[in-house]
Amino acid sequence: MQDSAQNYIDGRWTDAASGRTFETRNPADPTDLLAKVPASAAEDVDAAVQAARTAHADWGSTPAPARGKILKRSGDLLAERKTEIARTMTREMGKPFFETKGDVQEAIDTAYYTASETRRLFGATVPSELPNKMNMTIRRPLGVCGIITAWNFPVAVPSWKIYPALAAGNTVVFKPSEDAPVSGRLFIETLLDAGLPAGVLNVVHGADAAGTALVEHTDVDAIGFTGSYDVGTTIAETCGRLNTPVSLEMGGKNPMIVMDDADLDLALDGAVWGAYGTTGQRCTATSRLICHEAVHDEFVAMILDEAETLVLGDGNEEATDVGPLINDAAVDTVHRYVQIGIDEGATLQMGGAPAEVDGLGGHFYEPTLFTDVTPDMTIAQEEIFGPVLAVFEVSSYEEAVEVANDTQFGLSSSIYTRDVNRSFQAMHDLEAGITYVNGPTIGAEAHMPFGGVKDTGNGQRDGGYAAFEFWTEPKTVYIDYSGRLQKAQMDSVDE
Question: What is the distance between the alpha carbons of residues 248 and 229, in angstroms, rounded to a whole number?
């Protein structure tokens, strides 16, 4: 059954001005065509930006709690449509249905949390150094915001950016991933059906041409991006040249430390879920497992036994544990890294090849595990974005932390231990934006900041109140009710 995905500009569904389209297909069964989608370019982006600019005055002056009511209704509609949206998401991008339901639930949680924050949007009141004077700050929207997101969380991640941007009074031009355009449409339809005025949220589909035009547009006031490191650094360069505020969430090479006192059964669940959930196609995926030598051999054997039970297949089939990779290019990339791992001396314990699933011609890859990995190896340093787990053996907590921090990325991290002192030490020692204790490297919550350090991003955060700190700008206000001229420091200077 063919679906649809059009651009949405100034309250109207429309095709690309050029008439060009591209296809979105089921990665589990590429014969299954979901939709033909507008291949947009600069002309379409400009129309969307101008619509957003025109709508900004009214939307920005709408009382924030009124904006919040619309976001709340969007969350309600997501809840009503959860199954429908999740089924389509699985069909479009591959991860199992139980995962896509969680994706939608995260957007629901974000909608409700963000709506609640519209009754706060805190500024600050601060004592003045002068008499009969008040100092305060307020937060103002930035204006027109361009948002570009990845395909692997095609509802949750856009919600992290779009909801707080709208709540703060901004208008939005959204470019969903070209690998999940229908999922993006289903998400934004809940906002439109909730009563969002025309022009406040505009959607432009496409690949590089559309994304580049949005980032380079001089009437865009901020950019929010989730995606690859290479694309993110290019966006950062452009935004730096244009002096456009930008929030970047890029790659990860996330470590999970298993100490000698860990609950191995608990750690096993975390390692398998963290490494092979979403077929490893998460920026927070557990891609490096750092095991204390006292438990290394036992724990690796446990993972091998458990991974053998994982069922590959169509994510809309109940028995499926692991879905496909997103496309053939992803299969080629994962396999190239596997070959590099073998060539550099790592020991392939499991997997290491494309997989075939009966009745499907999809982009499947075997869950893969390497041992004897050292920090200098390519598979220890570069993000693979597939079901590949690299295992390191260490002799101490100190060595585990050293290995964990030996990467250019710093998104998520994890440690399994029963030692409370070591747990708290790891919170400080691990160079990552997120640390889980006795949990895998995945599992973000809507009301908590999400983002990383080092080359993972540029210090900005999605999620929680930190998101509002990006999507607004502070304004300082001085109110002098003394009835006379006061000259600040010149009046208060010490003699």
Answer: 9
Confirm if 430 and 413 have CB atoms less than 8 A apart. yes
Look up the pTM and report it. 0.96
- Enter the DSSP assignment of 153: S
pLDDT beyond 90 at 127: yes
Please report, for the chain, the start and end positions of each structural domain, with discontinuous segments joined by +.
Answer: 7-250+457-476, 254-437
Q: Which of 145, 239, 283, 291 is catalytic?
A: 283
Say whether 283 is catalytic: yes
The DSSP code sequence of 285-337 is: -EEEEEEETTTHHHHHHHHHHHHTTPPBS-TTSTT-SB---SSHHHHHHHHHH
What are the tens digits of pLDDT across the range 383-396? 999 999 999 999 99
Q: Does 1 have pLDDT greater than 70?
A: no
Q: Residues 102-113: what's their mean pLDDT?
A: 98
Asked whether residue 495 carries a pLDDT value surpassing 60, the answer given is no
Mean pLDDT for the stretch of residues 269-295 = 98
- DSSP 3-state helix, strand, coil percentages of the chain (rounded to 5)? 40, 25, 35
Cα distance between residue 158 and residue 454, in whole Å: 23
Nearest CA to 125 out of 116, 137, 117 is that of: 137
Distance CA 398, CA 47 (A): 55
pLDDT in tens, 287-335: 999 999 999 999 999 999 999 999 999 999 999 999 999 999 999 999 9
CATH superfamily to which 254-437 belongs: Aldehyde Dehydrogenase; Chain A, domain 2 (3.40.309.10)
Do 254-437 and 7-250+457-476 fall under one CATH topology? no
The Cβ-side half-sphere exposure at 87, using a 13 Å CA radius, reads: 7
Q: Which two tokens stand for residue 3?
A: 């679906």
pLDDT at residue number 273: 98
Residue 429: CB atoms within 10 Å: 19
Say if domain 7-250+457-476 classifies as CATH 1.10.10.10.
no
